[in-house]
Design goal:
By secondary structure, the protein is α/β, with parallel strands linked by helices. Helix content is 40%, strand content 19%. The chain contains eleven helices and ten strands. α1 (17-30) packs across α11 (213-225).
Length: 230
């Protein structure tokens, strides 16, 4: 049976993709599901990959989780070129598919937003389409969220858009739109596929985040909503 594959993308960089991916990995692992989490391409350090490794209880090595990593905190395509490297989609897909064979569920975290260049002539949208992955769009729950989410949904292939989920990440300081964004977004997108996570602190710690009951409830509801899932 083909493993369930979910691609965690976002409306921008720094929106909470790694936090959500780590929480999903920890939740699924707690249900004794064979789950892997990858961040195939990263730039500006490997803290995100280390968080995923911790969430998986070290079932994968750091290089398995994050085989392409570059020093400069800029778009991976440019960071790779600075180091005289080229990232091709074929190699990235080969690594993902090799990992898929070992697990029942695969979580893949992108870098930046949906259309941010990941390598030579490909982005997260291309990987989602090729892998037939279910996209999970992460967006800060603040002013502008509805426009950003709808633009990202519009950019997805129609087949992926029909399965997409949206996760609104609560900010440290809610603004005037934080309470109303979900309802407004639901006028344009299926409410049952929109989820809201509580604020989990400025410096995310997996143990503290996992102890937040509101977060655990939201993650459980998100997982339960995903089709063809054990």
């Amino acid at each position: 049976m083909r493993p369930a594959t979910f691609f965690i993308t976002g409306t921008d960089t720094g929106v909470g993709k790694t936090v959500l991916t780590a929480l999903l990995a920890r939740y699924l692992k707690g249900r004794d599901i064979r789950v892997a989490a990858l961040k195939p391409i990263g730039s500006g350090g490997r803290d995100d990959a280390r968080l995923l490794q911790a969430a998986l209880d070290n079932v994968l090595t750091l290089d398995e989780i994050n085989p392409w990593h570059f020093r400069a905190p800029i778009a991976p395509l440019l960071a790779a070129r600075r180091e005289h490297q080229r990232i091709g989609a074929a190699k990235v897909l080969a690594h993902i598919r090799t990992t898929q064979k070992r697990f029942d569920v695969l979580l893949i975290e992108g870098a930046g937003g949906l259309l941010s260049p990941l390598g030579e002539d490909f982005n997260a949208r291309d990987l989602i389409a090729t892998l037939n992955a279910t996209p999970i769009i992460v967006c800060p729950n603040r002013l502008g969220a509805v426009n950003q989410v709808l633009l990202t949904l519009e950019a997805l292939p129609s087949r992926a858009r029909a399965r997409a989920r949206v996760v609104l990440m609560s900010p440290s300081r809610p603004d005037a739109s934080t309470k109303s964004n979900l309802d407004l977004l639901a006028e344009h997108f299926d409410r049952k596929r929109i989820f809201r996570l509580p604020w989990l602190g400025g410096r995310f710690a997996l143990a503290r985040g996992w102890g937040n009951l509101g977060m655990r409830k939201a993650v459980k509801e998100l997982v339960s909503s995903l089709q063809n899932f054990p």
